[in-house]
Every structure is written in C-alpha cells, then in structure tokens.
Amino acid sequence: MSIERILDAYGDRLYRMCFVMLGNEADAEDAVQETLIRYFQKAPPFSDAEHEKAWLLRVAANQCRDILRLKTRHNHADVDSLSIAAPAAPDQQILEALMALPEKYRLVMMLHYVEEYRVEDIAKIIEKTPSAIKMRLQKGRKLLGDIYRREYL
Predict the structure, then answer these.
(1) Residue 123 is part of a domain; what is its CATH number?
(2) Could you tell me if 77 and 99 are in contact, meaning their C-beta atoms sit under 8 angstroms apart?
(3) Start-end of H helices in 1-153
(4) What predicted TM-score, i.e. pTM, was given to this entire model?
(5) Per the domain annotation, does 110 fall within a domain?
(6) Cα separation of 123 and 130, whole Å?
(7) Mind listing the pLDDT tens digit for each residue in 18-61?
C-alpha cells in the first residue's frame, strides 16, 4: 500500500471528480488529500481493484459534500482552470455546464458518463437506490441540456 500506487491508479480520476464537484483547484486538491489520508487511516480490505476504486470515489464524493456544506460563498472556476481537469475534452462548454448542475446531479453524471459506472454501481457508491440514480441521471441530462442551451446557444 504505497501512496505512489494509489496516486498513479486513481489520482487523476479523484481530482477530476472533485474539481467538477467543487469548481476550483484548491478545494479539489484538499478533497483528494483528505481522501488519501482516510485511505491510509481507515481503508478496509478490498476484494479487488474495482472495490478499492469505488471506495475511494465514495470517500472523495463525501469529502466534496463536506466542503460544499462549509463554504459560505460559491467560487467558480475560470476557463483556464477547466483545461487542467479535462485537457483532452473537445468541448469545454459541456464541462462548464456540468459544473453548473446541482451537486446531486453532477455527481451521478460524473460517475456514469465520465467514470463509466453502471447505475447499480453508482447506487452502491452513493448509497441510493438504482431507481433514484436513474431519476437523477434523467433529471441531470435535462438540466444539463437546459443550461447548455441557455448559456451557449
């Protein structure tokens, strides 16, 4: 269990998810750091790499929620910062629209469309029912489309 292995395997994924959920580099870095600290303090034995990744994503999502609860003002990332989270993304406007979604939709959209988790796996990660995840994905897609049309078309 080395920090290098964890960062190599999951660091980019954790940072990308935290950045999209929190909207700025500093908070995303804090959330990832706290996630890693929890990993080395409390990580249960994992059945496989997928179980380990799901655990890390759940802890990171919870860290992001904690940070969002504590914030009294909303910081928005500038366009230059967005390229750090998704340098290969052909359409940065989609990422900006995703960041404008409410947290509960943003999280499931990230896990499903970016991390490619199935609905059942997302339900386990965030401890909701599969039907709740499907509803959040459906509502998230609608909201994302509304935001994108309103802001960019």
Answers:
(1) 1.10.10.10
(2) yes
(3) 3-6, 12-22, 25-42, 49-70, 79-85, 92-100, 103-109, 119-126, 130-152
(4) 0.66
(5) yes
(6) 5
(7) 999 998 899 999 999 999 999 989 878 899 999 999 999 999 99
